[in-house]
Recover the amino acids of this structure.
């Protein structure tokens, strides 16, 4: 099997050495070189023709985002961002994902052998996955604004996502306009990033997007994002519904877990819900989406062609959890149609019973 060629870009000599050493431990990876800044990287990309790049998010004196933007326009290639896991670094990392980076990994703060080993395993996994994943294509944004003319009070849309999901969610949510049913979201993301992620979505969307930090009453025209260190559930509260945080163990290696959210939606909303599985690695959420379908909910999985990684939606499809497989650009119109159709059916049923 041909080795994956990797170029390491980082202004820190120590970090370049750590990344090179850890990547070289994988027999399927060949670190063909390292670069100290974007200018050095540009020359070495031409010279070494790497398959994937690891890129420091913040390099003093250098505009790494401008470099990434130019790279994705002129020579698109998989890029894994190596990020300092802080709230200050979150907006820069999210912008990098918007520009086309495949994924990011947090720099290790603990330099113990065990911690470096875990970091190295995740780094190698993401680098290899980046080589086989779909490169993000420049998509035509939806110009049509989508709304539902009426909102059934106890409807809910639940969405799960992982790798590639931050941008998939932005594309899905941007064209939605009030009035629209409430949306709950579990995106695999570190705890320092979820608040910045919700804020960034809110700046792009006409619906109100918030990170759930305590019990929230679920309202129409709102999108509720799970925080990066707690599971998100929904439950009935009196005559309404609320979002609840649950500090339990990781499920499917994730906290928050999509399965936890989807299972609660299946139990609380039943056939009044719509479930959507977006791009992501692994299989978290597949069982939960099946539970939603078994409870009468409408269920959708993003198709392989438009997914950065067809892991989670693919697992849902293989399990029989998805009633429909839809490209990312068509999911928002599909949701608007399903909401309208359901409202029309409810009104027709009510009229027939009079």
């Amino acid at each position: 099997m041909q080795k994956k060629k990797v170029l390491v870009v980082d202004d820190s000599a120590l970090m370049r050495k750590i990344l090179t050493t850890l990547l070289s431990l994988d027999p399927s990876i060949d670190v063909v070189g390292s670069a100290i800044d974007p200018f050095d990287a540009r020359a070495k990309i031409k010279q070494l023709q790497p398959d994937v790049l690891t890129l420091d998010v913040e390099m003093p004196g250098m505009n790494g985002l401008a470099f990434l933007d130019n790279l994705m326009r002129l020579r698109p290639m998989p890029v894994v961002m190596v990020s300092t896991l802080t709230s200050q670094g979150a907006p820069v990392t999210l912008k990098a994902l918007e520009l086309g980076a495949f994924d990011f990994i947090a720099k290790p703060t603990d330099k113990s052998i065990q911690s470096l080993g875990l970091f190295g395993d995740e780094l190698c996994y993401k680098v290899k996955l980046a080589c086989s994943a779909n490169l993000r294509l420049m998509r035509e944004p939806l110009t049509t604004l989508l709304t539902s003319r009426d909102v059934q009070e106890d409807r809910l849309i639940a969405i799960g996502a992982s790798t590639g999901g931050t941008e998939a969610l932005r594309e899905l949510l941007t064209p939605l306009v009030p009035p629209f049913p409430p949306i709950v979201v579990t995106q695999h993301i570190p705890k320092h990033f979820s608040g910045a992620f919700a804020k960034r979505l809110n700046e792009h969307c006409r619906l109100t997007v918030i990170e759930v930090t305590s019990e929230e009453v679920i309202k129409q025209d709102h999108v509720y994002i799970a925080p990066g260190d707690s599971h998100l559930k929904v439950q009935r509260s009196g005559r309404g519904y609320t979002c609840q945080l649950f500090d339990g163990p990781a499920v499917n290696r994730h906290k928050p877990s999509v399965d936890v959210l989807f299972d609660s939606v299946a139990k609380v909303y039943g056939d009044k819900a719509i479930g959507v599985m977006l791009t992501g690695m692994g299989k978290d959420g597949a069982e939960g989406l099946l539970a939603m379908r078994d409870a009468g909910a409408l269920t959708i999985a993003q198709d392989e062609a438009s997914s950065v990684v067809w892991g989670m939606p693919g697992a849902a499809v293989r399990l029989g959890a998805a009633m429909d497989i839809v490209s990312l650009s068509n999911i928002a119109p599909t949701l608007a149609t399903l909401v309208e159709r359901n409202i029309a059916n409810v009104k027709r049923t009510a009229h027939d019973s009079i």
